[in-house]
Design a protein that fits this description.
Layout lengths: L5 H27 L11 E7 L3 E3 L4 E10 L4 E4 L4 E4 L6 E4 L4 E5 L6 E5 L14 E4 L36 E9 L16 E4 L6 E8 L6 E4 L5 E7 L6 E4 L5 E8 L13 E3 L24 E8 L18 E5 L6 E8 L3 E6 L1 H8 L5 E7 L3 E6 L9 H8 L7 E3 L74
Parallel strand pairs: 1-3, 2-4, 3-5, 3-6, 4-7, 5-8, 6-9, 7-10, 8-10, 9-11, 10-12, 11-13, 12-14, 13-15, 14-16, 15-17, 16-18, 17-19, 18-20, 19-21, 20-22, 21-23, 22-24
Length: 483
Amino acid sequence: MKRIPRLLLMLMLAGAATATTSCNDDNDTAAVNPSGPTDAQGRVILQGNITANRKLVASEKYILQGPVYVTRGVTLEIEPGTVIMGDRTNKGALIIERGAIIRAEGTKERPIVFTSSQAPGTRNYGDWGGLIIAGEAPINRPLEATKMEGGITSGPQGGAFGGTNPTDNSGIIRYVRIEFAGVPLTSEPNSEINGLTLYGVGSGTTIDYVQVSYCGDDSFEWFGGTVNAKHLVAHRGWDDDFDTDLGFTGKIQYAVSLRDPQYADQSSSNGFESDNYNPGTPATGAPTENNGLPLTAPVFSNVSIFVTGGAPPVGTLSGSGPYQSAMHLRRNTSLSVFNSVFVGYPEGLRLDGTTTWANVQNNGMQIAGVTLANMNTPIRAAANTGTGAFTDADVQTWFNGTGKNNAVVTQANLGTLGLNTNNFNLTAPNFLLSSSSSLLTGAVFTGKAADSFFEKVTYRGAFNGSDNWLQGWTNFDPQNTTY
């Protein structure tokens, strides 16, 4: 073997060291040079319209100042571990317009976080807007006359949503947290943005492992569309947990809500609120485009919605209004629910209106494998007079039908559900069931739940006794998290 002369070796090592130093300097420069203008805290400012493909990276923090629109034909990619904050003063929000794509694909170990720009300990409901996605899937109202709620009309498409493509693809949302959203943008009613709002989003879009916490309005709301979803978490919301409107027909499996029983909305908070639209009729599909059809007819399975194991909250407490129903189904909706458990609402199932009751009678609405526990009034018939009127007893007879495996459990018998001792712990919940839980068996996957989208598990509710799909990516104490 030839030996390298000592002087030559020293020169080679010195050159290598110089090259290494130069590479490190380049990396350091790249790390400290922001990708755009920054605020006083060094967060990269996002504002106005994003009109070219852009990637947000975990090495930077971002702040949404005012409504930020990702425009048609543009893809916004977000790296795992990235933190995007919403500005309170300027009411930041992120809106993915029709024809745009968002690729927010975090991981279990490195979720993507949308949160308040406020310091730990000072964050609150509605600190910023929220995440809004508009697609081109069908809705049941005239397309160009129907605009997004909350005054989201200043973007290039003027707040329009919906279309004729049920398989439309708006991208992917996976392992994402959305915290302290829901700011009211105007003084008008229904002007708040939800945590995650899906406007006419198609089934080509992926929604999986999403947590919405401390939202000032609904945690999740679907306005029409066909998008499916799994593994959703609604934590300490203000208004409704899962709200469906305007002809939404997607499928959802594995969803959990944990409420703070002290906080509810002036409109009366519900676990499910479902409408076709206001007032819900006519629903003929004619003579004008999208006249009430398709009916709102999503299918949910394996949902757990918890308020309290104590006395159900009655009246206004620390929030702006009262709790109402675990499920408020009204205005000609045809929503179906399977294999789910609801605990601690003043009311359980409120079927509202004769058109909604008609959807029960024609088997469009299906409820099976459902347990209503710790309710003051488990079953209620509401707002039904004249032709087609029905009673509480009528709804009870339908709910208790043969083969449905539905049940009403009193507070005295709540222990039969085998809930975890930390089930209602607001900052560190554990929803895994005990080995004696009656919910571990008895799931019903008939009718609409026979669809291949649904995993045919044996248990009812979002959890069994061993598979905690919340681990690693959720945060139940975002108020005290430093980002």
